[in-house]
Amino acid sequence: MFDSGLDVNVQADLKITYGHETYGPENEQRHLDDIRRSLLDPSASGPDLVYSIAMDVGRKSDVMDLKQRMLLYGVCAYAKGKIGREPVRSQGHIHAVSMSCGSSTPEVYEVWSGEAIIMMQPDATDTPEKCYAVHVKPGEVVVVPPKWAHCTINGNPETDMIFGAWCIRDFGFEYDDVRAHHGLAFYPIVNDDGSIGWLPNRRYQGVELIDKAVRSYQDDLKITPGVSIYQQYINNHDKFDFVTQPGKYQQIWDNYQP
Predict the structure, then answer these.
(1) First to last CA, the chain
(2) pLDDT value at position 122?
(3) The Glucose-6-phosphate isomerase prokaryote domain covers which part of the protein (predicted)?
(4) Whose CA is closest to 186, among 198, 203, 194, 171?
(5) pTM metric for this prediction
(6) Contact 206, 132 (CB under 8 A)
(7) What gap in Å lies between CA 13 and CA 204, rounded to an integer?
(8) I need a surface site. Which of 115, 134, 142, 154 has the fewest CB within 10 A?
(9) Rounded Cα–Cα distance for residues 104 and 99 (Å)
């Protein structure tokens, strides 16, 4: 387990719990029936509990600053296993416009254990042109920019996957376009050897899949490799202002490359 900088534990039943100096909510749960509309096979069987979510987690000493900044930290735990031919995954969404900043907002993911694949594409119209499948290992970070459609995939079906993420406090999700296309532009498939392959979603047209590892965000977003994103916030409370004030960083979002 990568050291997240927080006293947070995940139990075998995917329940997220907190140490004495850490606050967090009761877990939300997403079940298989909640995501069927975005699956390759909506009737497929798999784990009933797909993932657990705890939105608004942090050190008790940071709560006032986080609220003032409109910054929110979330923790998610994904089940191992498969849903039909697919690995466990979310249904996908686009970040809605937040009232606090008047914009769709980015999200910063950090994997703690297992492996994630963050799939993202510039939109969920018929022709998004490119779709990225970014493989994220423990301690690695990936940033989803504003307005992009994205979903989270358990990249190793043999084990649970846990990650933390920075997002804006008044977050909201848009599902309509993703659901209308029954997911993003490619479906992840578990091959016979356990690796992840891809099948195109025929509801999209002419989309190129770019399957890649994470890149460094040190030059543009000033994220330090190897240091947990919560610890980076502790070291510099302004570090993730780009999450809550994305309009000030428009030059980064223009022509963004994951």
Answers:
(1) 24
(2) 97
(3) 49-192
(4) 198
(5) 0.95
(6) no
(7) 36
(8) 115
(9) 9
Strand bridging mode 16-18 / 116-121: unpaired
**Domains of the chain (ranges, CATH numbers):** 8-253 (2.60.120.10)
Per DSSP (E only), the strands in the chain are 8-10, 16-18, 22-23, 28-31, 49-55, 58-59, 71-78, 82-83, 86-87, 93-95, 107-113, 116-121, 130-136, 141-144, 149-154, 161-168, 173-174, 186-190, 196-200, 208-213
Tell me, what DSSP letter sits at residue 65?
H
As a whole number of angstroms, the distance between CA 85 and CA 53 comes to 24
State the Cα–Cα distance between residues 162 and 215, nearest whole angstrom. 20
**Token pair belonging to 142:** 């990936």
Residues of the chain with pLDDT under 50: none
Helices (H), the chain: 32-35, 63-69, 176-180, 229-235, 241-244, 250-253
**pLDDT tens per residue, range 204-221:** 999 999 999 999 999 999
**Which residue, chain included where needed, has tokens 């989270």?**
152
**pLDDT score at 1:** 87
Q: Which of helix, strand or coil describes residue 23?
A: strand
Is the distance from CB of 116 to CB of 163 less than 8 angstroms?
A: yes
Nearest to 34 by CA among 21, 16, 25, 46: 46
* C-alpha 104 chain-centroid distance: 15
Q: What is the dihedral of CA 208, 189, 141, 144, to 10 degrees?
A: 50
